[in-house]
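Notes continue from the previous slide.

Worked example: a multi-chain complex. Inputs as given:
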Amino acid sequence: MARGGGGAVVIGSLFSWIADPAHWSGSDGILNRLLEHLWYSVLAMVLALVIALPLGLYIGHTGRLRWLVTATNAARAVPTLGLLFAFALWLGPSLRGDLAFLVPATIVLVLLAVPPLLAGTYAGVEAVDPAARDAARGVGMTGWQVLRQVELPCALPLVMSGVRTAALQVVATATIAALIGLGGLGRLLVDGIAFGDYPQAAAGALLVAVLAVLLEGLLALLQRRLVSPGLGGGRGAVGGSRNDDDAAAAEANARMPVGPGGMAGGNS
Amino acid sequence: MDWLAANWRTVLDLGLSHLYLAGVPLLVGLALSLPLGWAAKRWRGSYPAVVTSTGLLYTIPSLALFVIMPLVLGTKILDPVNVVVAMTIYTVALLARTVADGLLSVPDHVEQAATAMGYRGLRRLFGVELPLAVPVIAAGLRVAAVSNVSIVSIASVVGVSQLGNLLVDGYRRIIWGELLTGIVATMLLALVLDLVIVAVSRGLTPWRAAAGARS
């Protein structure tokens, strides 16, 4: 197993590992691993959005099926590592080639991305000012128009924080999915640890961390572009004047899987 | 079930290590978050900086953080200290904001009343503001506890023993009983920590139960 000690020497070998052009090209090179990582993540996010967005809008708009949000939140206690292994053991043997890794890993990534997306969308629609909803109905909008033109834009800050939470969770878990044979940047990490090649493992770790931080920054920018300036970014009940209601708001906020800033309870 | 009957002692030992690796960072992280959150409230301008910088730390995937830790600390990669420090970082990342929000949620008129009654500085913080912020802080602590318990299981990959070992070993040797025991035991531990936090929070805020009974 690799040694970590020796500070500067190790950091030097880490950077010389990354700087080596031979480590960038080829099917197990950094570039290809990065593309794989992005592909798995995008695939899972698209699938999760297709499931969670309509469902969250439906729950928020109609108020039905609320237990579903609670149930998916409770599922956060399941260890992601166990979920990955269980699906790989269960589905892997009946699948051929790359699908034996890709299918179980994608299922788990989608399962982990759905709860924050669902909670964000539901909470976003739920939190729309009833006066705005009534006004929209008052000017003669149909239920569908209210949803599309009023509720969705107003819900966007919370929907986007759900997206940010889910995206980080997916990128982080895709790293661990290297343990069940998936490609991506996690390969550098997991193989580095397995073969006692600490510079490679540390290089993989650094690349994954940089990817996650860049992604978070990018999504934060996207959120700023997408959200109507009139909504003030939806920064929750912090600052300004304080009254008794804020205590309840802050408590609900802390309990929410997605904070208004996009930070959340569910890393892996 | 057969597997559990034959190995319950191992499960218990690993569960205790798991509790240690998830619980100690929770307490240390809380202790570090209190001054951070207080500072974010005291100097309101620093609130965005505290929230953003701690939030950014939470975005680093755990396996990556476990592997990077030896570079920062100069420890060996197998050292459990890496996991404890990494988990403390995650806890602070979640709690600094919660503590700030909790302290900010104390109504102005309550603070003014406390000041008028002679509560000042630290005495007001510990005697009035923090107790009133307990529900908010406890809510954040519950999220951090569940998150910590789940993340710690990944430390098996860097050779630090806890319940995650059952997951890795159960998968490698295809022992379903071991894998499922690992999953259920991890969830149980998260549940127990959650219940403890709820109980302590209730004990610290007796007036909430009284208010609930009255209304």
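Summary box: Residues 1-5, 233-242, 257-266 of chain A have pLDDT under 50 and may be disordered. The first helix of chain A runs from residue 7 to 19.
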